């Protein structure tokens, strides 16, 4: 029995306050897996003791155990084989599969436009433009988004680096050299990377600016972000397809390019002149005898 089923089975026997907690947990299952007891208490505006009493009421020994149950739940829900099997079993034909996929992707793209206003994209572009160095960070499928963004920021003459979370020595060297003039762009979707969550906590504690590219306002990396850009990546069979996120990145790049078009046009001309200069053979200074 999953933790959601356990909560639902006990729901009618809970107090009004406990039912309110139950509703929040079932609606924010991805977020709960990464919250501390103190954070959840603050979010719900109830005491920590009230939450611990809720755990006992549903037969869970502790808040730590509750978190583990939610972590197990989201891992199981996002497993590709499980999702693939259940989705494929419901499909009746190839036409059904293609039609449903197109509908899902349309929904993802519609939500990109609905959840990211031009004003928010403009604010994000301003942060990038004014930053001395932009640090990109994403793991798993999110690293592909970083790979897409990196060369395009370079083309716009933005000083950009990719953080390596797998090597603590390299990461430490990058972080110790970072200044308040820099900007971090963190990218993470369910199942959220615990390493990127820790990085977000570090950046917040040390008052660094960062943009969160994630799926919702409730994402654990969104809590203290300066700007939140939201993308949903629902797919018929797999999870975290990045097509919608890439579209969001392209919108951000277009806004950034438009805001700096005069500077970019000037720089492109300069770059072209440099290319032409170095493409010609040097003229000999020796006089012909």
From TrEMBL:
Keywords: DNA-binding, Membrane, Transcription, Transcription regulation, Transmembrane, Transmembrane helix
Coiled coil: none
Residues in SIS domain copies: 124-271
A Pfam match: SIS
GO biological process, one term: carbohydrate derivative metabolic process
Residue ranges constituting the HTH rpiR-type domain according to the UniProt record: 1-77
InterPro entries: Homeodomain-like_sf, HTH_RpiR, RpiR-like, RpiR-like_SIS, SIS_dom, SIS_dom_sf, WH-like_DNA-bd_sf
Gene Ontology molecular functions: carbohydrate derivative binding; DNA binding; DNA-binding transcription factor activity
CDD domains to which the protein is assigned, alphabetical: SIS_RpiR
Name this polypeptide is given: DNA-binding MurR/RpiR family transcriptional regulator
Species: Anaerosolibacter carboniphilus
């Amino acid at each position: 029995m999953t933790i959601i089923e356990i909560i639902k089975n006990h729901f009618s026997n809970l107090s009004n306050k406990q039912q309110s907690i139950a509703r929040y947990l079932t609606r924010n299952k991805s977020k709960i897996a990464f919250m501390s007891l103190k954070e959840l208490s603050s979010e719900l505006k109830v005491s920590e003791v009230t939450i611990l009493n809720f755990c006992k009421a549903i037969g869970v020994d502790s808040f730590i155990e509750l978190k583990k149950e939610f972590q197990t739940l989201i891992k199981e829900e996002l497993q590709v084989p499980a999702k693939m099997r259940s989705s494929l079993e419901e499909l009746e034909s190839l036409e059904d599969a293609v039609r449903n996929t197109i509908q899902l992707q349309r929904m993802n793209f519609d939500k990109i436009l609905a959840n990211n206003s031009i004003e928010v994209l403009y604010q994000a572009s301003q942060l990038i433009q004014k930053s001395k160095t932009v640090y990109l960070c994403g793991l798993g499928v999110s690293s592909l988004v970083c790979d897409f963004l990196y060369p395009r920021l370079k083309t716009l003459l933005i000083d950009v680096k990719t953080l390596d979370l797998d090597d603590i020595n390299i990461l430490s060297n990058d972080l110790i050299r970072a200044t308040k003039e820099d900007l971090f762009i963190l990218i993470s979707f369910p199942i959220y990377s615990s390493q990127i969550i820790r990085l977000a906590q570090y950046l917040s504690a040390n008052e660094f600016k960062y943009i969160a590219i994630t799926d919702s306002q409730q994402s654990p990396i969104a809590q203290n972000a300066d700007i939140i850009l939201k993308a949903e990546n629902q797919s018929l069979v797999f999870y975290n397809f990045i097509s919608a996120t890439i579209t969001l990145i392209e919108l951000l790049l277009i806004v950034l390019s438009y805001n700096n078009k005069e500077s970019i046009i000037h720089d492109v001309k300069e770059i072209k002149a440099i290319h032409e200069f170095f493409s010609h053979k040097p003229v000999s200074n020796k006089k012909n005898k």
